[in-house]
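In this supplementary section we document a worked example of the pipeline. Step one takes a protein sequence of length 164 as its only input; no multiple sequence alignment statistics are reported here. Step two produces a three-dimensional model, which step three serialises into structure tokens for compact storage. The input and output of this example are shown verbatim.
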Amino acid sequence: MPEFPDVELEALPKTLEAKVPKEYIDVMGHMNVAWYTHYFSESMLGLYRHLGFDLDELKERHWGSFALETHIRYFREIRAGHRIDVFTRLISRNQKRVHVISFIKNRDLNEVSASHEVVAICVDLRERKPALIPEAMGAEMDAMIACDRLLDWNPPLCGVMGVR
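The serialised model returned by step three reads:
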């Protein structure tokens, strides 16, 4: 398995906490890959909350986002009953897209289990078409990106994704 760089994830916002139920375990005895995607997807909603946006309000405004491209790296397995935290870092954005990387940290073993890099696009859910990121959310994202760039470590990006 690949090694994860020794970085301080706790400097990032925690966008999800969970305890892995036994139902998420596959025939290999660890969490099935589908559940990593589930937790990372839920952490995006946690990111919106962290940015100060109420999910019900966004729903009323018919705003949402769709993943365009993802890349998951698995570093250590997660087993039933393990408690996990997801930490999220904003990399960049433009008027419609955002580039994000999130990390699952196994709280019980104190190790990073996986990373998830995603490029997502803002959508108008009535028309199901790309839309501009709401101005207030864009300003919050810009502030978070600026703060994340002050960290003394570079995120382990796959190198082929980004906002164009």
